């Protein structure tokens, strides 16, 4: 997504200033610079999910910013799921975790069952 709304003057150099356009023209000018839904979807599908090593550094930066608010993000080992924790800043006690431990254990168990059986559901006609 290399084009952005800020680049509207570069993509439409002869366009009138936005405040001189009627509402319909404003919307049309905006739609010209936004990517189409299909192209964004195709780009998302063509890209593979980032690996653990690609996520560790951005998560560390987010955690540095959110530390003052008592929020932590981390990757769990099984399945590399993202976990959000709200932690009391003074005591360090866990206030809330999303998803909860029970859900993580359930997801891990489902993954084990699917691996053992080749799939949870059997679709036969």
Automatic annotation (TrEMBL):
InterPro entries per record: FlaG, FlaG-like_sf
Ranges in coiled-coil conformation: none
Region span, Disordered: 1-21
The protein's name in its UniProt record: Flagellar protein FlaG
Originating organism: Halochromatium salexigens (Chromatium salexigens)
């Amino acid at each position: 997504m290399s084009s952005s709304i800020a680049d509207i003057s570069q993509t439409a150099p002869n366009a009138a200033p936005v405040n001189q356009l009627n509402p319909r023209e404003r919307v049309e000018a905006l739609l010209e610079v936004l990517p189409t839904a299909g192209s964004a979807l195709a780009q998302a599908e063509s890209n593979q999910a980032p690996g653990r090593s690609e996520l560790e550094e951005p998560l560390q930066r987010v955690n540095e910013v959110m530390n003052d608010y008592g929020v932590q993000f981390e990757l769990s080992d099984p399945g590399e799921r993202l976990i959000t924790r709200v932690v009391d800043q003074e005591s360090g006690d866990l206030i809330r975790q999303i998803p909860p431990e029970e859900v993580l254990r359930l997801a891990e168990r489902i993954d084990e069952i699917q691996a053992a059986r080749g799939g949870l559901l059997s679709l036969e006609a």
